[in-house]
């Protein structure tokens, strides 16, 4: 293992404290609320707190942007078919790192950092220009996907300045 | 929108309460701790609580299993290159829905549910048979990936019965 910044050791100590009051041992893998949430990985978005969720309530799927990728579809199929969730909430947010990014410039940056050519960075980062429209696009994909069940799908924008969720789909 | 089960309305009311005490408006998109966490979507794993993280501390990337997929690599590149994270923690857990699944049977189930043939379900769900070994595999991918920075990568197993994190890589 390479050197850590000390934060890691502190987190393991925090976990030790967490176990002292942990009382969720009766929960099963099936989420109590029947919810699956797809959200951005952003550090300012605490999915549980902003929705008042408790441990055991919901599946939480997160990636850069809160975009519906193939991996999110895989996760949602597992969520619905193996663990019975029956409703989906998509959450993107203001001030997202992917808002209006220059895909080509980021590809160049990654290439320079990795010591490869930009052509070697063969991926799309998922940048978008209209936040509400992006949420509606993700919701539409979920509502129409052939392998997902026909369940309610909601689309929300989280405002990182106020903590408020705004419904856009 | 199709019918919801009432839980959704309750969550929006919870968010209204959340905004009343929300005081994170000074945070930027860059995680304060420099951490990116890759974890399973499981409802029993509260990533923030089990590590004592606060809002703004870390990127949280989650999918079925806590597996390092192409989408996780995309998210980590964005996390490292655009938002400066410099350490990764992978968390899988006991009692995972993907532990020892029968991929072919799940494919049949999804096909029957969707009204298509099993051949139309062209995806791998990511089942695994050895939990600690799976975590070590994800960590190894991250430590060696050409497009990721050489940062500390830790691998943990979360015990859903005790809330305890066990270091396995």
Oligomer: homodimer
- Number of helix segments of chain A? 5
State Rg of chain A.
Answer: 18 Å
CATH overall fold name of chain A? Beta-carbonic Anhydrase, Chain A
What number of domains of chain A? 1
Could you give the order of the helices and strands of chain A?
A: HEHEHEHHEE
CATH class of chain A: Alpha Beta
Question: How would you describe this structure to a colleague?
Answer:
The structure is a homodimer of 169-residue chains. In chain A, 36% of the residues lie in helices and 17% in strands. With 169 residues, chain A is of the alpha/beta class. Chain A has a single domain, classed as Beta-carbonic Anhydrase, Chain A (3-Layer(aba) Sandwich). A five-stranded mixed beta sheet of chain A has the order 2-1-3-4-5, covered by helices on one side. In chain A, strand 1 (35-40), helix 2 and strand 2 form a beta-alpha-beta unit. The model of chain A has no long low-confidence stretch (mean pLDDT 95). At the A-B interface, helix 1, helix 2, strand 2, helix 3 and helix 4 of A face helix 1, helix 2, strand 2, helix 3 and helix 4 of B.
């Amino acid at each position: 293992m390479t050197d850590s910044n000390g934060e890691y050791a502190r987190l393991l100590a925090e976990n030790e404290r967490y176990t002292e009051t942990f009382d969720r041992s009766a929960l099963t893998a099936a989420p109590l609320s029947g919810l699956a949430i797809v959200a951005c990985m952003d550090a300012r978005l605490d999915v549980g707190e902003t929705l008042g969720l408790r441990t055991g309530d919901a599946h939480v799927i997160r990636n850069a942007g809160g975009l519906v990728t193939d991996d999110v579809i895989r996760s949602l199929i597992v969520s619905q078919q193996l663990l019975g969730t029956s409703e989906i909430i998509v959450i993107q947010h203001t001030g997202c790192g992917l808002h209006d990014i220059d895909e080509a410039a980021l590809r160049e940056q990654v290439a320079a950092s990795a010591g490869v050519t930009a052509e070697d960075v063969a991926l799309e980062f998922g940048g978008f220009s209209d936040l509400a429209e992006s949420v509606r696009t993700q919701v539409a994909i979920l509502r129409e996907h052939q392998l997902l069940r026909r369940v309610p799908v909601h689309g929300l924008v989280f405002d990182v300045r106020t903590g408020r969720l705004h419904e856009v789909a």
